[in-house]
């Protein structure tokens, strides 16, 4: 991912603000974004957990 457009960044921040909801329609760029935004929230943050699981599935084996 290069530089994220500001309108996309704002949309993703709004859509991902609630740590109790899982994100919908993840792709690799959005998952990495959510990992960055929610990285310090701990094991109860569903946004972080879903993004981490998505990225783990995309990792080369």
Would you write up a description of this structure?
With 61 residues, this protein is mainly α. It has a domain at 20-58. Helix content is 56%, strand content 0%. It contains three helices and no strands. It has helices at residues 6-15, 28-38, 46-58. α2 packs across α3 (46-58). It is globular, with a radius of gyration of 11 Å.
Which helices and strands, and how do they pair?
Blueprint: H1 6-15, H2 28-38, H3 46-58
Helix pairs in contact: 2-3
Summarize this entry quickly.
This protein is mostly helical. It is built from 3 helices and no strands.
* Overall average residue pLDDT: 92
The geometry reads as globular
The amount of beta strand, in percent, is: under 5%
Rg is 11 Å
The tally of beta strands, per DSSP, is 0
Give the helix/strand class.
Answer: mainly alpha
Main sheet? none
| Straight-line N-to-C gap | 21 Å
Spans where pLDDT lies below 50 across 5 or more residues: none
> Helical region count?
3
Percentage of residues assigned to helices: 55-70%
Topology as a string of helices (H) and strands (E):
HHH
């Amino acid at each position: 991912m290069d530089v994220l457009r500001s309108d996309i960044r704002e949309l993703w921040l709004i859509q991902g603000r609630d740590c109790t909801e899982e994100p919908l329609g993840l792709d690799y760029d959005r998952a990495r974004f959510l990992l960055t935004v929610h990285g310090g929230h701990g094991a109860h943050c569903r946004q972080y957990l879903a993004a981490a699981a998505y990225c783990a599935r995309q990792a080369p084996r």
